[in-house]
Design brief:
binds magnesium ion, binds inosinic acid, 10 strands, Rossmann fold, 189 residues, 21% helix, 4-stranded antiparallel β-sheet, single chain
Length: 189
């Protein structure tokens, strides 16, 4: 039985829509353990700076870093690409820059989800011009149709082209607190 949530009147125009569970909290926990082990192995003896991409990364980021056993430092960057709640605007805006100095440092960018790839591409270009020692990318989710001209080093799950919420991901800033990842069932089935 798939877990389903029905959105009530608090969700305005989305009320009556259903959310179906796509990835359970237990599956997320297990995969994050694996990702953290892989990252810890790759950065043995180093002190990487993990740069979280706000807002969506915050739950994943907190769980991932707590499973890692290298002395990582943290910082955050905030960008925006979504024009409305479920579609990218096609342009990325920088809302808050990092505050640490990444000169000579090993950087790991932590994203919640890669969809069109615009955001991660924007971040890659920005960091390319920095004097970082190395830059890698980790994303909890990546949509299966996404095409990028560079590699994402750590990917949690590849998912179908559906709008997903929960575990940090939002629909109009809500539902970030759900423990599992759900997809929005636009047809209401
Ligand atoms: P992109 O620039 O199209 O790759 O999208 C990147 C950003 O849009 C992600 O970091 C998310 O914040 C947001 N986003 C993309 N797809 C979804 C989704 O299915 N649910 C919630 N947020 C999403
Ligand atoms: Mg994001």
């Amino acid at each position: 039985m798939t877990k389903t949530l029905l959105l009530d009147s608090n969700y305005g125009k989305y009320s009556g829509l259903k959310l179906n569970e796509l990835i359970s909290s237990e599956q997320i926990r297990q995969r994050i353990e694996e990702m953290a082990a892989e990252i810890s192995e790759d950065y043995k003896g180093k002190t990487p700076i993990m740069i979280g991409v706000l807002n969506g990364c915050f739950v994943f980021f907190a769980d991932l870093i707590r499973e890692m056993d290298v002395p990582a430092e943290v910082d955050f960057i905030k960008i925006s690409s979504y024009a409305n709640e479920t579609r990218t605007s096609g342009t990325v805006r920088l809302l808050k820059d990092i505050s640490c100095d990444i000169t000579g440092r090993d950087v790991i960018v932590i994203e919640d989800i890669i969809d069109s790839g615009l955001s991660i591409d924007f971040l890659r270009r920005r960091l390319q011009d920095s004097q970082a020692q190395s830059v890698k990318f980790a994303a909890l989710l990546m949509k299966d149709y996404t095409k990028l001209d560079f590699e994402i080093d750590y990917i949690g799950f590849t998912i179908p082209d559906k709008f997903v919420v929960g575990y940090g991901l939002d629909l109009a800033q809500k539902m970030r607190n759900l423990k599992s990842i759900y997809y929005l069932n636009q047809e209401g089935h």
